[in-house]
Hints:
Number of helices: 10
Radius of gyration: 20 Å
Number of domains: 1
Mean pLDDT: 84
Largest sheet: none
Structural class: mainly alpha
Amino acid sequence: MCLWATHQLEKISPELASAQPLGIARRVSWIQLLRYRQTWSIFICRFLADPIWYFYVFWMPEFLKRERGLELRSIGMVAWIPFVVADIANFACGAVSGWLLHLGWSVNRTRKTIMAVSAVLCPLGVSAVFCHSVFWTIFFISVATFSFIFWAVTVHSVPVDFFPSEYVGSVYSLCHLGYWLNAGSPP
C-alpha cells in the first residue's frame, strides 16, 4: 500500500515526491502565541465546543438504553450511524470549502459561513430527546454530529490562515489545551 501511494505521489506531483525536508523552524513559546487574539479565539472555541462531541460519544448509548429501551445489541445496530455521518462531514466540509473558494469566495467568508450554518444546525440534536422513534432519534443526533464536525473541521483549519506554518502545530496544541481544561482530563 505504501509503495503504491509513493508511486501515485510521484505521478501526481513529482516536485513534492522529491522534496527535501525543511530546515529547523524557529521556536515559539506558548506565551508568545497567547499575545495574539487569534490564538485566544481558537482556544475559546475549543474550550466551549469540543466537549459537545464527547457528550454525544458518552451520552448516546445510555440515552438509547434508558429512554428508547434498547438492549446492547440494538444499540450497537444504530449507534454507529451518527459517527459515520460525522466521518462524511469531514470530507463534505473540505468539498464545500473548496467549492465556495472556487466560486470566488474569500477564505474569511467561506470559514465564517460554514461555521455559522453549522452552529445553527447543531442544536437540532436536542430534538432527539423529544422523538419517540429510534429512527428520528438517530436522525437528529446525526444532524448534530454532522454539523459539529463540519464546524470543527473549519475551526481546526483556522490556525493555517492566521499563523506561519512553523507555528501551526504549537497553536493547535495550545488550543487543544482549551478542550482539556474544560473536560477536566487528558484526551
